Amino acid sequence: AVEGIENPEELLDLLDQNDDGVLTMEDVPNGPVPVIRLLELIRAADADGDGEVTLEELQEVVPQITQEEFARLDRNGDGVLSPADVPPPPPDDFRALILRLFALLDTDGVAGISLEEIHAVLPEFPAEVFDLLDRNDDGVLSIADLPQGPPCSELERLLALLRAADADNDGQVTFEELAAVAPWITVEQFDHLDRNDDNVISREDLPPFGEGPLAHLVHILRHADGDGDGRVTFEELQALFPDITLEQFAHLDRNGDDVITSDDLPDPPLDPLRRLRRLLGVADADENGAVTFEELQAVVPELTQEQFDQLDANGDDVITPEDFPEFPRDPRNEFLELLRAADADEDGQVTLEELGAVLTDLTEEELEAVFGRLDRNDDGVITIDDLPESPIPDAPEVRQWLLELLLALLDEVVPKADPALDSYDVADVFPEAPSELIAHMDTDADWLLTESEIKTALEEPGAEGEGEGEGEGEGEGEGEGEGEGEGEGEGEGEGEGEGEGEGEGEGEGEGEGEGEGAPIISIGCGSISGAASDNPFTGTGGNTALMGLVCLAMAAYGKKRSAAQETA
Asked: Domain of 543: which CATH number?
């Protein structure tokens, strides 16, 4: 049975896009794998090699095809099949675009394709888009440039699109901005993304409850099911993930029947509230971002009023994203928000003076240190070019926060003998980039996170024997105690850690642990600086005080913003 779905008809309705009561290729017209299959068919049937396939040529390869079916494939109605009849890829799916280019050039993507090769078949393909897709900057597009990690959720894809397309960083993406990174975009595709019909795409258009396991599985089926039989084989998924391993496929094929179907939904979490939160997207029948008791009970008949009240944190009788607990943010999204808040003249650049107008509690020396850290390319201004590259927070208190959340989830995983977290688990506590976070932390590339992988990625070097939080003194040796947070300046909230001595107040200290109350604004400091270098404002180790200073500054700004919003 499908968790939260009472009968198979509901699942059919989700998949059956043309409402004809059956699942066929018509229901997956724009999935990357069906499109690749169509391009392969055109190439195989093109007897004279002119790039166009007539009905007669196609019937040589597929004798049973009819004139009516041929006309349906001939989307532009010019009487022949060609790459021009292939529907455009979704603008939020860069993987689909890269795979489309591989199919057009008839390559497996191992060796890579250059911009010149692309221009041979697509003369107007923008160089800017090529550079965006060339993630490793090696001058060619290859399977190495495909997004790593398990299949992304809709929320994660849309946030990545906003970062890529919002050229002026005003928090809104216009049709023109999106067309700059997705030239094939249609008005219909843009309108589909613009959920609130305000003619721009922004965070307000993001799905309010993210994407639950059911919708995520439907997305995989629609994009990878090449023959429309409702099942995805290893070979079909390999067309979407060329470097996928059998171990990764087995993770998605939960019942071990060698195909991915609707029967492969993950087991629901043991925590009843976390289980209910995953169903809010299904329950939001009118898609207004507010779930009533009746809506949630329609998909969870055993729902009690007490459970609903626990989810409804603000007691307004509906469940909205405002009722969710606060979780760590993707440092790239936070960086862009800070950039917008500090850019007083809206020229896309933040000067030292503009940053000082936002971070008013810092001394001149502290402000210059923070500015130097945020200005990754040392050009004297903070811009989008200084955006962090990784979703992993490097602020010690945020890393510790995420570490403890992920380790707590491991306690719920069954079997207990070898627990590991999948992307659905990670999304419960890091919703903005769960798949990419796994890609950065998953050392054995099985699309799962174990305790050792989590600790390796998030624990600070020399964490054992040190404490962090509010107080005075340094944590040394073993034993539990309280010590001050990493960095100089004023730290707020109590922190726990291992070390000797206790104290409260202001002062200097080092170490890490847990801070009481997560900062509203936090910046992944190491992600901003990149790899360690000779620059005293980059790297780690001896510069941990400066790292802490940046994080404290961002936290101070977040608290000011929150207070201002409450006053308003």
From this structure: 1.10.238.10
